[in-house]
Design brief:
mainly beta; seven-stranded mixed sheet; four-stranded antiparallel sheet; about 0% helix; about 55% strand; globular
Amino acid sequence: VQLQESGPGLVKPSQALSLTCTVSGGSITTNYYYWSWIRQSPGKGLEWIGYISYSGTSYYSPSLNSRTSISRDTSKNQFTLQLNSVTPEDTALYYCNHDQYWGQGTQVTVSS
């Protein structure tokens, strides 16, 4: 399984961040597979953002729940993170993940 993140590297404060993960070598609808977004802010550890399941249900970190949405496009084998009302504290390296498989990460900077 290979995962590849894509999306803008710079987002203005108060805007929405949108990142897409394209999956190859496996289907996002395979039973019991869960597809996550995880981030790492400068000087901090990994923070789990949320996941979307093989059936399309999503679950988010309680600390980010009010601003987060994860959706999918099964025809493209992709899943997408939207994080609303971003602040500079959302600046981080964002990864998509499934089990032991990780994307290479994409840097997102929140700045005016």
